[in-house]
Design goal:
By secondary structure, the protein is α+β, with helices and mostly antiparallel strands. It contains 4 helices and 15 strands. The longest helix has about 35 residues.
């Protein structure tokens, strides 16, 4: 009987060890899969914020300057920060372009501007603040609340069409309480404005990212020689050695009789492009050396586009 118990115990212990090893193996597979997914590369789109205005009556006094509205600039900075932190965009300065040009001229340099793939136009459509509270026998509560509504339009720079439009509202509040005259008491908290606008913009950012990445990233040939084939774009946009792209001809442009708008039909796939190395110092001057699999008419390079696969 004792021998039987020993055998059963040994078999049970072996089964437990095997199960543990099996679980560990599955966990390792999952960790490798997660790692592989995290290293997938994203080709960055070029985005410019064309205008972000304050359409409310808040802070519009006698000496109000529409061109230097603090709330509009505040909203622009918040949206720019959120889009840059996503890691999916190259943000192009537009609002302060005159100051940048002036600074470049003072240094004796010329400014080479870079075209955007998408243009964002936004406005603060609602803004308000209020104080509410409750008073008891021994305590007093004060609630400061700020509400803001932000409207966004996303425009495809190649066609001028609005591809996304939406509005979102954000609310921020802070509570102070005193009991028998003891506790927190404060005037209006100016940071609530930032928080309300930031919350409203944050609700729109994911949709902006989704719409911008719906359309494949694309670039063009810069040079085509036997010893040097170059395309526009480089490291800052996510290109790196070994990346494979699609080589296509430009689609025919036709006028849509329903809308009267010129549209580009899908092009034909002619081969693949493999990135060999990247170079350049800035998004405006970056380039990549590539190899080509497929036929290319060297005399008509502008008839081709290069897209992510």
């Amino acid at each position: 009987m004792k021998k039987i118990l020993v055998i059963v115990f040994a078999l049970s212990f072996s089964a437990i060890l095997y199960a543990q090893r099996k679980i560990e193996k599955v966990e390792n597979i999952n960790s490798v899969s997660t790692t592989e997914e995290s290293v997938s590369k994203i080709l960055k789109r070029k985005v410019a914020i064309g205008r972000f205005s304050n359409e409310t009556q808040y802070a519009k006094g006698l000496f109000y300057d529409k061109e230097n509205d603090p709330m509009g600039k505040q909203a622009t900075d918040i949206l720019t920060t959120k889009l840059v932190s996503s890691g999916k965009f190259i943000m192009i300065e537009r609002n302060d372009i005159s100051a940048i040009i002036e600074e470049m001229q003072l240094k004796g340099d010329s400014l080479s501007t870079i075209g955007a793939d998408y243009l964002i136009i936004g406005s603060i459509t609602e803004f308000g603040r209020k104080n509410t509270g409750k008073s008891g026998v021994f305590s007093k509560t004060k609630i400061q609340t700020v509400e803001a509504a932000v409207s966004i339009r996303l425009v495809d720079a190649s066609s001028g069409l609005i591809i996304y439009s939406d509005e979102a509202k954000g609310v921020a509040e802070i509570t102070s309480k005193t009991t028998l005259g003891v506790g927190s008491s404060a005037g209006f908290d100016a940071t609530l404005s930032d928080k309300a606008i930031s919350e409203a913009i944050g609700q729109l950012v994911e949709n902006i990212i989704a719409k911008c990445t719906d359309k494949p990233w694309r670039t063009y040939f810069l040079n085509y020689e036997d010893d040097a084939i170059l395309i526009a774009g480089g490291k800052s946009q996510g290109l790196e050695e070994g990346m494979v792209l699609s080589l296509k001809t430009k689609g025919k442009k036709v006028k849509n009789p329903q809308t009267g708008i010129m549209i580009e039909l899908p092009g034909k796939v002619k081969g693949t492009i493999t990135v060999l190395s990247v170079g350049g110092d800035t998004p405006e001057t970056e380039y990549s050396f590539v190899s080509v699999e497929g036929f290319v008419d060297k005399e008509n390079l502008m008839d081709y586009i290069i897209e992510e696969r």
